[in-house]
Design a protein that fits this description.
By secondary structure, this protein is of the alpha+beta class. 34% of the residues lie in helices and 25% in strands.
Length: 476
């Protein structure tokens, strides 16, 4: 049969219009069947490619990341991959020249998303567009797709919420307190131009408090008498479990410093006793005189603060332990022979005389641990004052030629920076703290009032598992 015979048979005597309709029907039916055939092949191919196991290692924000994806099938031709943009995610996707693989590389940074006000998710969907050698594709689907998921672990510090304290709906007594506090005491140079030590302090609400919209419980108080040249510094850490501890810490610092201020405004006899003790530190009589003075000043300050807190609890008809707070209290003065430093310590945290030049560090007391690990003692506990011998052991004094810094800090700083109480006795750890301050923008130079803002910013340092209020005071 030749072509003409075939055509006559196909026309079958139909007129041109009928034959044209027949051809159109046949063509449409065949093309539809062909498209179904192609789509079936596409589905089979996509299922085959989707079955290829591709494990994308998790990325972590602010940590360099690089990973190459190769499906292992040479017939896959990668056209492009989408889902990550360097400007938005810190990661970019690059397809290899041979189109057989692609690379994800960069340093994840999700702040552009956060800054846009959009909630940040940790899982990002990637779409790989590809063709498959030997597979024909219909006009309506020129590329095949494979979905992949990449997890970018967010920087934990960005997961914390900063919820304002709802002071308007806070039940009475509110005991309002700012989320942060800082102060700087500039002490003028001596007439001969010799610089005097200054005091700087900063306090910041902890992330764990901010997460729940709770107030800052820490407090501090600084004082210098320009006439007598006595310094007084107090730092207190209100117990997180005590609902009014923010007021307990405020009263403790304020009252203790006020008592010391009054006592040190007329202290000629105290200074005479200090000079006697300096001349002969082995003298039992001189030592007793100084010890009695310290008891009458610092001991009275602590006991008066305790009583004031007790009175406030009674006035408001609350429990005394609802005002639980620690207290670190120090007084010091420079004499011709060097520095005299005395202290009172109840609770945790740290108080230390640090000498960079001579590579020494001396704790001015011992951190309290309760009957069980992780507990501490508080100024509000009556038993602190019940045993005179135990109470007196909380008072310390010493004479040193000079020092680099006198540190007082709550455990919100000492825990992450020293980790254990044993490390508080390590001069290397105090060296590291001094370097840390300097390396992170805290300029502890003479008369640098900007140090208070710098120190407050420094308190925002990141430490896994350490998110309590942070307070530190430095005489330097």
């Amino acid at each position: 049969m030749n072509a003409d015979d075939f055509l006559k048979l196909l026309v079958n005597g139909k007129n041109d219009a009928d034959f044209e309709g027949f051809l159109k029907f046949t063509s449409d039916k065949l093309w539809n069947q062909y498209n179904d055939y192609l789509m079936d092949n596409i589905l089979i191919t996509e299922n085959k490619v989707n079955a290829i196991v591709v494990n994308l290692p998790n990325a972590s924000e602010n940590k360099p990341y690089e990973h190459t994806v190769d499906f292992g099938d040479p017939r896959i031709v990668i056209v492009r991959a989408e889902g990550l943009v360097a400007e938005t995610h810190g990661l970019a996707i690059t397809v290899s020249d041979d189109k057989k693989s692609f690379k994800i590389a960069g340093t994840p940074d999700l702040n552009p998303i956060r800054n846009s006000g959009i909630d940040v998710e940790s899982t990002f969907e990637l779409t790989v567009f590809y063709t498959y050698e030997g597979l024909s594709l219909p006009p309506q689907k020129t590329l095949l797709e494979r979905k992949l998921s990449l997890v970018i672990n967010q920087d934990p510090r960005y997961l914390w919420k900063n919820i304002p304290v709802d002071w308007d709906n806070m039940p009475e007594p509110k005991y309002y307190k700012e989320d942060t506090g800082y102060a700087y005491v500039t002490v003028k140079a001596l007439p001969d131009g010799t610089p005097q030590k200054d005091i700087v302090a900063a306090s910041k609400r902890g992330r764990s408090h901010a997460q729940e919209g709770k107030p800052r419980d820490d407090h501090f108080e600084l004082y210098h008498n320009d006439q007598t040249n006595w310094y007084v510094i107090a730092v207190a850490d209100g117990a997180g479990s005590a609902k009014f501890s923010r007021e307990g810490s405020r009263i403790a610092c304020g009252v203790a410093v006020e008592v010391c201020k009054k006592a040190l405004s007329n202290c000629e006899k105290f200074e005479e006793n200090i000079n006697l003790w300096h001349i002969d530190q082995k003298s039992e009589d001189a030592g007793k005189l100084v010890s009695t003075d310290i008891y009458n000043i610092l001991g009275k300050a602590a006991h008066t603060a305790h009583n004031e807190i007790k009175a406030e609890a009674a006035r408001t008809k609350n429990r005394l332990k609802d005002y639980a707070t620690t207290l670190l209290l120090a007084i010091c003065k420079k004499f011709d022979f060097g520095w005299f430093v005395a202290s009172f310590w109840v609770g945790d945290g740290a108080m230390c005389l640090y000498d960079r030049k001579n590579h020494t560090s001396v704790l001015l007391g011992t951190p309290d641990e309760g009957e069980y690990g992780g507990q501490t003692r508080f100024l509000t506990m009556p038993e602190i004052f019940a045993n005179p011998t135990d109470f007196f052991s909380r008072l310390k004094c010493r004479i040193v030629p000079d020092f680099t810094a006198l540190f007082l800090m709550s455990d919100g700083v000492s825990d992450p920076k020293f980790e254990t109480d044993v490390n508080l006795n390590s001069t290397e750890k105090w060296d590291a703290l001094w370097d840390d301050l300097k390396d992170n923008g805290v300029e502890l130079t003479d008369d640098n009032e900007a140090a208070k803002e710098q120190l407050l910013n420094w308190l925002d340092f990141w430490s896994v598992g350490n998110h309590d209020d942070r307070t530190i005071a430095i005489l330097y």
